[in-house]
Amino acid sequence: MKSAWQIRACSPARSCVLTEHAPITEVRSELKWKLDVNKQHYALALLAENGFTNLYPVRRIFSVYYDYPNFRFFREGEEGVVPRSKLRIRCYKSADQLLQSGRIEIKSTGMSGRTKYSLSLTDAAVRQLPAYLQLIYHHYRTGVLRPITLVNYQRRYFANAEGYRATVDTDIQYSRVVRFDRRGLVASTSVRDPDSVMELKTPMQTAPLDFGDNLPLTRMRFSKYNESLLKTEYLGGLAFERR
């Protein structure tokens, strides 16, 4: 399936079209690194040394994450449970445009990689989802899932000739969602993360991410949603502590 981002049709030397949404379905392998301020420029230099060049203009991303009242998605992420899933609404304009131009994204993590489904808010192709994700979507539509946090950040996009993609996220901000409905979004004062995140991605049917094993950086499992609950310290009177 051709990506809406046209990544496979582009090389770093060619101009690429950046659309407002991700591919409808994308299966990929991912590696992540959390970078403190002192390592951000070093990481960018490593990308350049390995043939990565800018793929798209920098843009800001806004995501509202949903969870169950018992914070099932959060707990499964902290425990590293597989398979696990999460649901968010994402847009690339502003937090005020989430309901107008955002898309529902459901991510499913399994033993062999991650699958992301991107669906329209008004005409969701629910039948494209596996049955267990259709249930999650149904819980979103019926209000069983509730909006929990707003995360926004600046993203830079890179690619190399081997088909690897990389993103570097900076100025990451976390807020608790007070209200998110047709009347609009109300969120708490944001908490800024001093660190950035670098992510290396490739479609599952292409080269494995062996390249990432050779980078002199410490890899880690990282979730912006989970980090948002930990950074904002509480939600609904429930305190979170990193294990």
Summarize the topology.
Blueprint: E1 25-35, H1 37-49, E2 53-67, H2 72-79, E3 84-91, H3 98-101, E4 103-110, E5 113-120, H4 131-141, E6 146-159, E7 165-181, E8 184-187, E9 191-193, E10 196-203, H5 210-213, H6 224-232, E11 234-235, E12 238-239
Antiparallel strand pairs: 1-5, 1-10, 2-3, 2-6, 3-4, 4-5, 6-7, 7-8, 7-9, 7-10, 11-12
Name the descriptors.
mRNA Triphosphatase Cet1, Chain A, alpha+beta, globular, 243 residues, single chain, 6 helices, 8-stranded antiparallel β-barrel, 12 strands, 20% helix
What does this 3D model show about the protein?
- The protein has a single domain (25-239), classed as mRNA Triphosphatase Cet1, Chain A (Alpha-Beta Barrel).
- It contains six helices and twelve strands.
- It has helices at residues 37-49, 72-79, 98-101, 131-141, 210-213, 224-232, and strands at 25-35, 53-67, 84-91, 103-110, 113-120, 146-159, 165-181, 184-187, 191-193, 196-203, 234-235, 238-239.
- It is globular.
- The termini are far apart.
- The model is unreliable at 1-21 (pLDDT under 50).
Q: TL;DR?
A:
By secondary structure, the protein is of the alpha+beta class.
Number of helices: 6
Task: Look at the structure and give the CATH class.
Answer: Alpha Beta
CATH topology: mRNA Triphosphatase Cet1, Chain A
Flag low-confidence runs: 1-21
Range of helix content: 10-25%
Note the gap between the termini: 40 Å
CATH superfamily: VTC, catalytic tunnel domain
Rg (C-alpha, Å): 18 Å
* β-sheet strand percentage: 35-45%
